[in-house]
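Handout, page 2. Input:
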Amino acid sequence: MFCETCGEKLLGASSFCVGCGSKIGSPGPVAHQAAAQETLPPVSMRHSSHTWTPPVGLHDAREREPLTTGQYLLMFLLLSLPLLNLVLLFKWSFWPGGNINRRNFARASLVVFLIMFGFYILVYRYMAGEFH
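Output:
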């Protein structure tokens, strides 16, 4: 049986979804007795820590795992190639899926690139005499 709200697989005869905390429809009479013994409170009441953790199954584990040193070195090597670096930064930033660390790094690199590009344009215009 699966949750109608988030699609998470339900545990036995539980009254609440483990993934999203929504109340499950009334179970049958046999399952109702088991549910009374194993009733789980909503997710918000079970977690005592203040850190947010995504529900199980929300993201693939490969998306959340940290990049290795070799992956970073390969990434920097690829980003040193002209024009390919912009294509890869846009792909890594906006392509669905992929590692979240690489995605955030690519987005931050694009922001730095845009700031530096604007700065270079201002310096070029100043050197060309447009601000005199």
